[in-house]
UniProtKB/TrEMBL annotation:
<dbReference type="GO" id="GO:0008107">
    <property type="term" value="F:galactoside 2-alpha-L-fucosyltransferase activity"/>
</dbReference>
<dbReference type="GO" id="GO:0009969">
    <property type="term" value="P:xyloglucan biosynthetic process"/>
</dbReference>
<dbReference type="GO" id="GO:0032580">
    <property type="term" value="C:Golgi cisterna membrane"/>
</dbReference>
<protein>
    <recommendedName>
        <fullName>Fucosyltransferase</fullName>
        <ecNumber>2.4.1.-</ecNumber>
    </recommendedName>
</protein>
<dbReference type="Pfam" id="PF03254">
    <property type="entry name" value="XG_FTase"/>
</dbReference>
<keyword id="KW-0328">Glycosyltransferase</keyword>
<dbReference type="GO" id="GO:0071555">
    <property type="term" value="P:cell wall organization"/>
</dbReference>
<comment type="function">
    <text>May be involved in cell wall biosynthesis.</text>
</comment>
<keyword id="KW-0325">Glycoprotein</keyword>
<keyword id="KW-0808">Transferase</keyword>
<comment type="similarity">
    <text>Belongs to the glycosyltransferase 37 family.</text>
</comment>
<dbReference type="InterPro" id="IPR004938">
    <property type="entry name" value="XG_FTase"/>
</dbReference>
<keyword id="KW-0333">Golgi apparatus</keyword>
<dbReference type="GO" id="GO:0042546">
    <property type="term" value="P:cell wall biogenesis"/>
</dbReference>
<keyword id="KW-0961">Cell wall biogenesis/degradation</keyword>
Amino acid sequence: MFPLKETVFHHLGRYLLHPSNTVWGMIMRYHNSYLAKSKERIGIQVRIFDWAPISAEKSYEQIVRCTQQELILPGVNLNQSQISPSTSAEATAKTVLLVSLYGEIYERLHNLYFVHPTTAGEMISVYQPSHEEKQQTEKKFHNYKAMAEIWLLSFSDVLVTSAGSTFGYVSYGLAGIKPWYLQSSIKGWNIQNPSCYRAASIDACYHTPPHFNCKTGGKADPRNIVRHVRQCDDYTHSPTVKLFD
């Protein structure tokens, strides 16, 4: 049924996870207003965890390093604040969809490309659908917006997501593309080198997999039983699993 094992979540998710009419309306209105006409859509999803704290400023700097080093977004000319008419007429339009609970990261990234021209003349637009500041799962409309933003991210041509984020997993799983993981600050990892790295699989990471061996009735490590099941490449500080080809 699934010749490519890492596509299981992608196919099942797109087949089974259908937004309600209310959520789908939010998705299409935002997409048609801000994303539809872009030549390239770049999704950036940022989750800051209590167990891996990082300031908004450091997170912004990490995003800029990652996207510019990996040629996802162009560099800017910090010494120039006005684009020349000769480049604007032939500019390539890229749209960045930034999804985060926090507004400060968006403001910094938006201002970077609003104030300064890019080095090659590309036109970069940056949008953020919402910034709730904190997770509010008890509120229905908050969850509506979260689901809408997951689907909007799934329309991206390139995705950059926070390592360890289930929000990001679902987004790139639905998109069917391998994201760039923003390195976590947990355990003293240096988030500057590298700032991000490419995922090895499009499957979502299972943080709490079952450890039951059906044959023996005892505990077992699923990574040692099934060939396509291995340790997650973004969440390695506990036994986690995902599918690889």
